[in-house]
């Protein structure tokens, strides 16, 4: 019995030190938190198709020009719902895995040999269920495909062109996060820099929102504006000295955007005089 106890206890410890280790769970927690901040898009394959015109000449056409608007909006709603369910399930699964780790640790640390062996069937059921949770968690960390129930393209637009099978799936882009070391304000201007993906297209559109903070003053009217940007830096001119501004960065909306739940903001205070202008400015 002692050997059996040590052997079975070792199985549980191995699981706790591998799949359910604190480091492993924290890694998945970080991935889930990042995913919650991502932008979700509909990805359509193929992106282009060859279509005949009235003169039977073939033209390469963007698939979005052929897809029925109503059906496309409907699929975007389906994609948003699927995304929200996916993110909710990720949170729930992580909570289940953390609770499972606590339960198994309790079995190992507090149970004597007889109690541990008598509860082995229950422990094995828990191990099996937690393994299933982990597999599901891993599958949910990658956005999935969308099932297309209705025809997305009107055959009247095709003029007898044979249309390839249209596949829809969800894809993500990472959130934009300000570089707080490289973002600063001077007397009447500020420079903002944010992190983007390494493979990001050069002409990716971003929106930088600028808002003057009024500290709740009843006599001062709030002020704000938006600048379109195509790089990861932007200089904002014509700011008032000695004032706090909130800057928010987000990706520009596109036809395929399904869901955005988070965007980064930073508060910078402009300087009041030229001497102060040589120093950095506080940011949050």
From TrEMBL:
Residues 1-168, 173-277 form the DUF5581 domain. Transmembrane segments: none annotated. It holds the Pfam family DUF5581_N. InterPro entries: DUF5581_C, DUF5581_N, FN3_dom, FN3_sf, FNDC11, Ig-like_fold. Gene3D superfamilies: Immunoglobulins. Signal peptide: none annotated. This is FND11 protein. It comes from Pandion haliaetus (Osprey). The lineage of its organism: Eukaryota, Metazoa, Chordata, Craniata, Vertebrata.
